[in-house]
């Protein structure tokens, strides 16, 4: 005869255990089914000695089970003793094989053949048993593991951790905690941000890297496993490192086949989608409730609160509000409309496209990191050149984008449901246009951290943001009166590709008619001339290639490859040809661009004998510049060694313009032929220094300059993340005296950086100023432009955008 209970709870993690404790406290018949021989298998499998965090700190814990931040062993010990104290009915080694029946009469079949009947079911099974697997060549034979139990077991190994969420970071920290173990630990992060991890964990990781315990590899992904060697795709190309062991912590997904077999629907077909749930956690199968990580809430405190709440709901408590209700209520209190929190969340979720597939539970967590604002018609939301990297979503009304700074009346509307501000989110640049409310509007401002987390955890949101940003990039690039409707088919068939440094997207002589738009990064164009590859051109983000073969037919006339790790949008030629047929102005624009490129090819062919030496020198010099970081620069300082006399006026002028601290090291850097690349900021298109700035002190100026404002706290993250070594940490020296006082009376230091004596004196007196990040800001706000260029007496120093400097057109002018 089957056991019969009111509530069957599947899974004894924080959510399930909390639910069972509440049921026991209320005297409800229940059973807690756990497939292992211990409680909370996910926490049990945490590495030994792991510190378990109790975040978010502002959220109250209402579970009957206690939980405070502490060691894994202490947390598990508390739960074991309290489960016994509350007389929780736990059934160990009880894995559920199938669930059948309807609300009030469910039947659960276990793998051992036992059968349990229940009126309601709470699924709290988590997702850790279904990890995302590493899929690269060699993975089937590589030494890969998806769990780390005891970091102390590993000694003198080269270990690579793949995954930059909390689990990956904590594993890396555990493996590197004891220097005596002798492990060489590397952690890979495919992006420049740790979007999925808690701030405290990221801070600990950076501190470990500062001590030399861990190597952090940003914008790096595994490409292939070859025995104990791991081939990496990095922003600068491919690289091989030793990896005796690989620990892959790349997230996990719901055991979808089992969950769907219970009659539960998911929000989308995506592997990482979550079940559809009501605000009371009930699924699309009446009587089956879903809580915890399976519901999209992975934080322990959230899970425990849900366990408590779901049993209260099942027991008929209709008035109970979630524990985060006061926090969310405060966000909406300023609005006149008297809606409940649930009504507000549903309004925002339903009206904003990128939020459509979030569950009510995910919406609550999302809104804790976002703000809702209202604007009257005509009110400014942000101004052109304002700093800011947040994303905005229109929940009600519409906004107007002022596309002509000289004429405010020239605007483009963005309607309800869409987003704006995506350029600041993706590139970190200042706002490119003034945006104001076109009518009374309600707008959600999504912090950069929340937006990146949203894109990382909700595939549908990432697709929506990507599509909108691509659509607007194409409209801006091609112009010609195009509308979003015109681009629909082109976008539907498009594909975004990540291209490693050196990887070609077009090969000379190949067939094909697709067009490629450079979204992030840059490309170089080469052509085979006289048996050698000749550098033709440099293409920054916002350029496109491939139109020649599409319009004129024939094979590709040049090779185009990534200068640095890049993203390109592949537009299918068939769809684009239809667009050209419908839009003659666009066809005319592309033919003009094609003619310019054909002229360059013809010029090279006609001069290949007489200019062979110049072509070779130019090609080698251009390749040298790209190898030294010019491929991702927007503005770079170059010095012509044929003209430089070594006077150091450039460094002195830089120091005199910046509180006595030079942002330039003329002698450092590399030289090829007569061209020298000194140590000075490149003002990268996607600055690595911006990746992890806690006070958000790094911004882009109106002319593209990357600068650090007064909010800098001297943490040094930007210095660590810059691959070119152009940021230093230093204290600002005392103010210099006027020039006359120095000349006539000898007061204070002269031009350039002062000597170090002031530092020693300040340190002895205890008055030394805290260190801050120092880097080139292109002399923003200083009349006349960069001081280093103005101060050069011979014209050796020049600041240029790479696309202006790298191109065969220079050979045509005779300055190659």
UniProtKB/TrEMBL annotation:
Keyword Transport: yes
Domain 4Fe-4S ferredoxin-type: 635-667, 704-732, 770-803
Keyword annotations from UniProtKB, A to Z: 4Fe-4S, Electron transport, Iron, Iron-sulfur, Metal-binding, Transport
Pfam families given in the database record: cNMP_binding, Fer4_11, Pyr_redox_3
SUPFAM superfamilies: 4Fe-4S ferredoxins, cAMP-binding domain-like, FAD/NAD(P)-binding domain
Keyword Nucleus: no
InterPro entries: 4Fe4S_Fe-S-bd, 4Fe4S_Fe_S_CS, cNMP-bd_CS, cNMP-bd_dom, cNMP-bd_dom_sf, FAD/NAD-bd_sf, RmlC-like_jellyroll, RnfB_subfamily
Domain Cyclic nucleotide-binding stretches: 354-472, 478-597
Name this polypeptide is given: Cyclic nucleotide-binding domain-containing protein
């Amino acid at each position: 005869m089957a056991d019969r209970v009111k509530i069957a709870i599947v899974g004894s993690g924080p959510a399930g255990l909390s639910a069972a404790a509440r049921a026991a406290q209320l005297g409800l018949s229940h059973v807690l089914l756990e497939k292992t021989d211990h409680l909370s298998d996910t926490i049990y499998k945490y590495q030994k000695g792991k510190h378990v965090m109790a975040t978010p700190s502002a959220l109250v814990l209402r579970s009957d089970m206690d939980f405070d931040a502490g060691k894994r062993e202490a947390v598990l010990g508390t739960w074991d003793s309290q489960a016994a104290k509350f007389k929780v009915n736990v059934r160990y080694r009880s894995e559920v094989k199938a669930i059948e029946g309807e609300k009030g009469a469910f039947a659960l079949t276990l793998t051992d053949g036992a059968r349990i009947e229940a009126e309601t079911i709470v699924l709290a099974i988590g997702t850790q048993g279904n990890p995302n697997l590493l899929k690269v060549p060699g993975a089937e034979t590589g030494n890969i593991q998806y769990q780390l139990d005891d970091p102390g077991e590993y000694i003198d190994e080269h270990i690579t951790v793949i995954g930059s969420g909390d689990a990956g970071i904590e594993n890396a920290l555990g493996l590197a905690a004891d220097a005596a173990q002798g492990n060489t630990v590397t952690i890979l992060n495919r992006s420049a941000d740790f979007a999925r991890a808690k701030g405290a964990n990221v801070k600990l990781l950076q501190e470990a890297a500062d001590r030399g315990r861990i190597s952090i590899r940003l914008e790096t992904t595994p490409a292939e496993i070859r025995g104990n060697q791991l081939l990496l795709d990095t922003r600068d190309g491919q690289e091989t490192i030793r990896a005796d062991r690989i620990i892959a912590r790349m997230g996990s997904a719901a055991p979808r086949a089992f969950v769907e077999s219970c009659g539960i629907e998911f929000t989308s077909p995506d592997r990482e989608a979550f079940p559809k749930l009501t605000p009371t956690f009930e699924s699309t199968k009446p009587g089956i409730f879903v809580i915890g990580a399976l519901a999209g809430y992975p934080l322990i405190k959230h899970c425990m609160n849900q366990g408590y709440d779901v049993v209260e709901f099942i027991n008929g408590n209709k008035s109970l509000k979630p524990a985060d209700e006061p926090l969310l209520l405060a966000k909406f209190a300023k609005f006149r409309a008297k809606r409940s929190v649930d009504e507000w969340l549903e309004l925002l979720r339903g009206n904003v496209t990128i939020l459509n597939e979030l569950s009510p539970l995910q919406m609550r967590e999302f809104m804790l990191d976002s703000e809702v604002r209202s604007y009257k018609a005509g009110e400014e939301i942000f101004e052109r050149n304002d700093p800011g990297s947040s994303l905005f979503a229109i929940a009600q009304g519409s906004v107007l984008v002022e596309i002509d700074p000289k004429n405010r009346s020239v605007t483009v509307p963005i309607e309800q449901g869409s987003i704006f501000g995506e350029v600041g989110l993706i590139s970190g640049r200042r706002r490119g246009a003034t945006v104001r409310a076109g009518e009374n509007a309600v707008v959600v401002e999504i912090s950069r951290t929340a937006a990146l987390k949203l894109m990382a955890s909700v595939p549908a949101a990432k697709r929506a943001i990507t599509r909108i940003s691509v659509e607007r990039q194409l409209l801006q690039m091609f112009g010609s009166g195009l509308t979003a409707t015109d681009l629909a088919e082109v976008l539907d068939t498009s594909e975004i590709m990540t291209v490693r440094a050196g990887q070609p997207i077009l090969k000379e002589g190949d067939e094909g008619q697709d067009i490629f738009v450079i979204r992030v990064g840059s490309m170089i164009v080469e052509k085979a001339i006289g048996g050698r590859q000749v550098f033709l051109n440099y293409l920054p983000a916002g350029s496109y290639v491939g139109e020649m073969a599409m319009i004129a037919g024939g094979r590709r006339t040049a090779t185009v490859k990534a200068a640095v790790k890049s993203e390109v949008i592949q537009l299918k030629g068939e769809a684009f040809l239809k667009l050209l047929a419908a839009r003659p102005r666009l066809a005319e624009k592309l033919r003009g661009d094609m003619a310019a490129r054909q002229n360059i090819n013809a010029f090279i062919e006609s001069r290949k004998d007489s200019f062979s030496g110049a072509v070779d020198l130019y090609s080698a010099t251009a390749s040298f510049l790209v190898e030294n970081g010019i491929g991702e620069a927007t503005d770079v300082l170059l010095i012509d060694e044929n003209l430089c006399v070594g006077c150091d006026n450039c460094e002195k002028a830089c120091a005199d313009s910046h509180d006595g601290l030079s942002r330039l090291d003329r002698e450092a850097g590399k030289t090829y032929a007569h061209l020298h690349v000194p140590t000075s900021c490149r003002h990268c298109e996607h600055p690595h220094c911006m990746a992890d700035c806690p006070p958000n002190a790094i911004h882009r100026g109106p002319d593209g300059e990357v600068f650090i404002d007064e909010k800098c706290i001297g943490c040094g993250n930007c210095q660590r993340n810059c691959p070119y070594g152009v940021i230093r940490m230093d204290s600002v020296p005392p103010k210099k005296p006027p020039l006359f006082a120095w000349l006539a009376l000898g007061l204070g230091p002269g031009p350039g950086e002062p000597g170090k004596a002031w530092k020693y004196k300040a340190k002895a007196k205890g008055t030394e100023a805290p260190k801050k990040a120092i880097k080139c800001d292109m002399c923003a706000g200083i009349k006349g432009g960069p001081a280093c260029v103005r101060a050069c007496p011979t014209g050796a120093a020049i600041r240029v955008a790479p696309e202006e400097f790298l191109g065969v057109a220079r050979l045509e002018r005779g300055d190659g």
